[in-house]
Design goal:
There is one protein chain. The protein has 157 residues and is α+β, with helices and mostly antiparallel strands. It has four helices and six strands; from the N terminus they run E-E-E-H-E-H-H-E-E-H. The chain has a single domain, classed as 3-Layer(aba) Sandwich (Glutaredoxin). The protein is 25% helix and 18% strand. Strands 4-3-5-6 form a four-stranded mixed beta sheet, covered by helices on one side. It starts with 6 loop residues before the first strand and ends with a helix.
């Protein structure tokens, strides 16, 4: 399997094939609205504004698995992100990234790039960078800001 074999649910619960992002450089992030890393939304949006026209897509997957930091409904999460950070990149349905109910896409991403503490995702705002061919190139910890990975994104565009 590769990344394009997966389907995810958009914010309204509709299935979206990852194949629709084929040929794009992807930054896939598990996010939360009540996290200490939440201000990274601003940096993510800045990257999106700068590089979307060159083929960058940022895919936002809210996750409430870490200290209940994304407790709202999808409507509340979208509203928060748009009003506070003016986000325009795609947001998907809330998911689990670890455990028995982990979303299959994240199971795949973790199998391709392990983290410092093994396979599990440590916290919200873990980022996966995927090239235009669907290869998972890098995994970045939550403490790695979007600005720190800008050069890696530019290399792939």
């Amino acid at each position: 399997m590769n990344i394009y074999d997966y389907q995810v649910k958009d914010a309204k619960g509709n299935l979206v094939s990852m194949e629709s992002f084929q040929g794009k450089t992807l930054l896939i992030v598990n996010t939360a609205t009540g996290c200490g890393f939440t201000p990274q939304y601003q940096g993510l949006q800045e990257l999106y504004d700068r590089y979307q026209n060159q083929g960058l897509e940022i895919l936002d997957f809210p996750c409430n698995q870490f200290a209940n930091q994304a407790p709202g409904t999808m409507e509340e999460i979208q509203s928060f992100c748009q009003l506070r950070y003016n986000t325009t990149f795609p947001i998907f349905s809330k998911i689990d990234v670890n455990g028995d109910n982990a979303d299959p896409l994240f199971v795949y991403l973790k199998s391709q790039k392990k983290g410092i503490i093994g396979n599990n995702i440590k916290w919200n705002f873990t980022k996966f960078l995927i090239d235009k061919n669907g290869t998972v190139i890098n995994r970045f910890s939550p403490t790695t800001t979007p600005q720190k990975i800008e050069d890696k994104i530019k290399e792939l565009l």
